[in-house]
Each structure stands twice: as C-alpha cells, then as structure tokens.
Amino acid sequence: MDTIHACFKEKIGEVLLPGDVFSFRLPESGDGSIKSEKIICGPGLRRNGEEVRVCKSGILRHKQPNMYWIDSQQRRYVPAKGESVIGIVTTKSGDVFKVDVGGSEQASLSYLAFEGATKRNRPNVQVGDLVYGQFTIANKDMEPELVCIDSCGRANGMGVFGADGLLFKVSLGLVRRLLAPQSEIIKDLEKIFPFELVVGMNGRVWVKAKTVQQTLIVTNLLETSENMTSQQRQTLFKRVAEGSL
Amino acid sequence: MSIMMELDRGCSNLREYGNEQSLLSKPDGSSTFVQGDTSILAGVYGPAEVKVSKEIYDRATVEVLIQPKMGLPGVRERAREQCARETCEAALLLTLHPRSSVTVILQFGSLSNCQLPSCCLNATCMALMDAGLPMSHLFCSVTCAISKDGQIITDPTALQEKESRALLTFAIDSVEHNVLMSSTKGSFSLQELQRCIAISQRASEQIFQFYRESVKR
C-alpha cells in the first residue's frame, strides 16, 4: 500500500514535465505475498507497462482515496463522454446537424435528440444557433455525438438557446473553476448585478445581462479573472460594483 | 512569465538564453526562445481539423511551417521543417489524436543566423508543452562546432560557426538522453562525432533544467 502511494506523495503539488517517470518495484516480502493496490491515473498520467509516465506538464494533484492527476493549463478542447458543451450549428444535412464544439472534428447532433421531437415534429434549429448538449459518444476513434436530452428524455436545461447575449472563449482551467460546486468567482459576480450565464466545458461561455453594457462588463471581468488571485479579483469586482451603482 | 538565465561557464559553456510562454492569444500554445542573438517565436495549433487528403487514420498529422524574418521560405527552411517535424513525431503521443492535425509555426525574430535549427527545436518543445499536447518525453537541441584545430565548441557564435570545420546539431530526449535527430555539415571523424554526442548530452541536461524552472513560474 505504501510504496506506490509514497512515490506519488512526495511529488504532490510539484510541477512535473512530460517524461517524468514513477517506476514501482514491488518489494520482496518474506512470505511471498504481494498486496495489490489500485490507483486511478487521471488526465496527464499514462501507464507504460510497469511504470506511470507524465505526459503533460502541470502540477500533480491528489484526491482521496487513490486518484492522481496532472492539473495542466490548456486552451484546446478534446471531447470527452458525458461533458456538457456549447456548440454552434454549422450545417443541416438530412436528419443530422453538424455542430462545431471547438475540437478536432465537428460533432453530430440528431434532430430526434431534443425533448419532444418526433419525425413529424422537428425542432426549430437553424444554422448559426447555439446549442447546449452532452456527449454520448466521444472517443479518439469516432466522430463525437451530442444529444440535448438526458437519459430520461427530458431537456434538463439543454437545447437551443441564446437569442441575445454574447459568446466568448476562455481557457479550460477557468471553466473548471467556474463549474466547481462552490465557485467563488460566480458568487462574487452575482453581487454586482443579475445576469444569465451558460458555461460549456469546451471553454465557451455565454453571458446575457439586462443591457449591452452590463453584458460587456461581465465578459471583461470573466476574461480578466483568469490570471488574477482571488484577492485581486475581489478588489476589482468591488470597484466595478461601486462604479456601476 | 519570462525568464532570462545566465549559465556560468561550466563544462558546456552555454550562453545565456531566455524563454517566454503563452504570449500569443490565438494559438493553443506559444513560446519564444532566445539563445544568444537568435530569437524564435513558435505557435502551436492542435489537435485541430485536418484536410482529408492529409489525414492519417491512426495518428495525428504534424505540420511545421518556418517563416524567415525576411523573404519567402526556401529550400533551407523546408529542410529544417523536416528535421523539426520528425523530432516532434518522435516525442508527441500522436496515437491519442487520430485524424487530427498538430501545426507548429515558427517565426524567426532576429537576423542572426547562428544556431537556428537548435533554437527552432527548443522553441517548438516549449510551445508544445504550453499547448498541453501529450508528450512521452521532452526534447532539446544542442549545436556543436568543431574548429579547424579540432576543438569542440558548444553553443558557437556566428563567427565561430563560420570558421568551423564542421557543424553538428543534435536533438536529445529528456528521459534516456538518446539522440532523436542529428543534422551535420562538414567533415569530422567518428571519434569526434561520439565526443560531440557526449558533450551534447551533458549540455542538454542544463537545458532541461531550464525548461523545468521556466515552467514552474
């Protein structure tokens, strides 16, 4: 139990580069019994036979009981199953929409994958619309597929949206921070003025506030809060809140 | 996020070099690398869409484009592009992104011609790291010049390069210090080649240390 975890533990919180290796040699115990331990390697770590190699540069993080992953900064999105993203409809060909999600390939979205859609009752989706959906199929070998309903057939917030408002792109790290359960950035932003926010895991964020100016203010605040510490952010938000009132 | 490092005159005698990452907003990863007088800006896009004629069914397609400071790219740039592309293909985990493309664009920032291939490869490696592309190991590049009296100089200046009998460039990987790519010009003996490789491997450790510190910012 201890050898493998000890190897990782000494590097938690450290910056690792691709090519760094964790190699494990099981100690020979006297009675010949080997305890098997299970470790979950997350993004950035790859198993190479008997060793684990780092393949992205970043900080090693740990979550109890046995999950390790590399926290890296990235701008490019790679589709993964189950993630909810904002896509832009690019073409309508027959029964399938092609949606740009920012990855290496366009995702396909069937017209039946909307709530209440049947062959007679087609959803009202035009080219250029914004769509919020989830990936059902997303691996490196196949074209990704989106759906706008959950497993029970309900929309649950997904589907076409965005009659007004502004769509912009941020880095994936900021998106993960916004989607965390108790996100401080969102809490601080709520205090300034009310607005609607849709966050896609592909780095796309859609914002709508009462006036165009407020929308632009929220956009700028989100884009700049990427590189700021929380203190700097709070002082900036306070200044903006006082300025707008 | 920029770091300038002055290395003391140890066994490898490398000159000062500097690096800055994430300075361009449009590419997925970018970096500049400054080595002495030579500076190169690298931008990486990937994994992105690829034309059907260029796609490979089980791995990503790597494209390298080199733009000199003045004039149009010529045959020399194409040769360097090939060296850079083969080194990238060895280091990146391309099978994780089949049917997509990784594009590296290099722009020369200075007119100085010394150590261009080395600087290109170092800038490429830092930009690939900045873009978050999965790599099995890092690589760095070292240039050696053999002067007319048989002395081996690492990190030569433009003057030393012109007066040298042979010029060798190696790309070295970070895990086992193997030679990934070698490009040589001039005549030299087998022993000199082996000595150059040994010296480059030692110099590459300094460069990897520099990578590590510049990423830690």
Automatic annotation (TrEMBL), chain A:
<dbReference type="InterPro" id="IPR004088">
    <property type="entry name" value="KH_dom_type_1"/>
</dbReference>
<dbReference type="Pfam" id="PF18311">
    <property type="entry name" value="Rrp40_N"/>
</dbReference>
<dbReference type="InterPro" id="IPR049469">
    <property type="entry name" value="RRP40_KH-I"/>
</dbReference>
<dbReference type="Pfam" id="PF15985">
    <property type="entry name" value="KH_6"/>
</dbReference>
<dbReference type="GO" id="GO:0000176">
    <property type="term" value="C:nuclear exosome (RNase complex)"/>
</dbReference>
<dbReference type="GO" id="GO:0034475">
    <property type="term" value="P:U4 snRNA 3'-end processing"/>
</dbReference>
<dbReference type="GO" id="GO:0005730">
    <property type="term" value="C:nucleolus"/>
</dbReference>
<protein>
    <recommendedName>
        <fullName>Exosome complex component RRP40</fullName>
    </recommendedName>
</protein>
<dbReference type="GO" id="GO:0071051">
    <property type="term" value="P:poly(A)-dependent snoRNA 3'-end processing"/>
</dbReference>
<comment type="similarity">
    <text>Belongs to the RRP40 family.</text>
</comment>
<keyword id="KW-0698">rRNA processing</keyword>
<keyword id="KW-0271">Exosome</keyword>
<dbReference type="GO" id="GO:0071035">
    <property type="term" value="P:nuclear polyadenylation-dependent rRNA catabolic process"/>
</dbReference>
<keyword id="KW-0694">RNA-binding</keyword>
<dbReference type="InterPro" id="IPR037319">
    <property type="entry name" value="Rrp40_S1"/>
</dbReference>
<dbReference type="Pfam" id="PF21262">
    <property type="entry name" value="RRP40_S1"/>
</dbReference>
<dbReference type="GO" id="GO:0010468">
    <property type="term" value="P:regulation of gene expression"/>
</dbReference>
<dbReference type="GO" id="GO:0000467">
    <property type="term" value="P:exonucleolytic trimming to generate mature 3'-end of 5.8S rRNA from tricistronic rRNA transcript (SSU-rRNA, 5.8S rRNA, LSU-rRNA)"/>
</dbReference>
<keyword id="KW-0963">Cytoplasm</keyword>
<keyword id="KW-0539">Nucleus</keyword>
<dbReference type="InterPro" id="IPR012340">
    <property type="entry name" value="NA-bd_OB-fold"/>
</dbReference>
<dbReference type="InterPro" id="IPR041054">
    <property type="entry name" value="Rrp40_N_euk"/>
</dbReference>
TrEMBL record, chain B:
<dbReference type="InterPro" id="IPR036345">
    <property type="entry name" value="ExoRNase_PH_dom2_sf"/>
</dbReference>
<comment type="similarity">
    <text>Belongs to the RNase PH family.</text>
</comment>
<comment type="subunit">
    <text>Homodimer. Component of the RNA exosome core complex (Exo-9), composed of EXOSC1, EXOSC2, EXOSC3, EXOSC4, EXOSC5, EXOSC6, EXOSC7, EXOSC8 and EXOSC9; within the complex interacts with EXOSC3, EXOSC8, and EXOSC9. The catalytically inactive RNA exosome core complex (Exo-9) associates with the catalytic subunit EXOSC10/RRP6. Exo-9 may associate with DIS3 to form the nucleolar exosome complex, or DIS3L to form the cytoplasmic exosome complex.</text>
</comment>
<dbReference type="InterPro" id="IPR001247">
    <property type="entry name" value="ExoRNase_PH_dom1"/>
</dbReference>
<dbReference type="Pfam" id="PF01138">
    <property type="entry name" value="RNase_PH"/>
</dbReference>
<dbReference type="GO" id="GO:0000176">
    <property type="term" value="C:nuclear exosome (RNase complex)"/>
</dbReference>
<dbReference type="InterPro" id="IPR020568">
    <property type="entry name" value="Ribosomal_Su5_D2-typ_SF"/>
</dbReference>
<protein>
    <recommendedName>
        <fullName>Exosome complex component RRP46</fullName>
    </recommendedName>
</protein>
<feature type="domain" description="Exoribonuclease phosphorolytic">
    <location>
        <begin position="14"/>
        <end position="134"/>
    </location>
</feature>
<keyword id="KW-0238">DNA-binding</keyword>
<keyword id="KW-0271">Exosome</keyword>
<dbReference type="InterPro" id="IPR015847">
    <property type="entry name" value="ExoRNase_PH_dom2"/>
</dbReference>
<dbReference type="GO" id="GO:0003677">
    <property type="term" value="F:DNA binding"/>
</dbReference>
<dbReference type="InterPro" id="IPR027408">
    <property type="entry name" value="PNPase/RNase_PH_dom_sf"/>
</dbReference>
<dbReference type="GO" id="GO:0005730">
    <property type="term" value="C:nucleolus"/>
</dbReference>
<dbReference type="GO" id="GO:0006364">
    <property type="term" value="P:rRNA processing"/>
</dbReference>
<feature type="domain" description="Exoribonuclease phosphorolytic">
    <location>
        <begin position="137"/>
        <end position="202"/>
    </location>
</feature>
<dbReference type="GO" id="GO:0016075">
    <property type="term" value="P:rRNA catabolic process"/>
</dbReference>
<keyword id="KW-0539">Nucleus</keyword>
<dbReference type="GO" id="GO:0071028">
    <property type="term" value="P:nuclear mRNA surveillance"/>
</dbReference>
<dbReference type="GO" id="GO:0003723">
    <property type="term" value="F:RNA binding"/>
</dbReference>
<dbReference type="Pfam" id="PF03725">
    <property type="entry name" value="RNase_PH_C"/>
</dbReference>
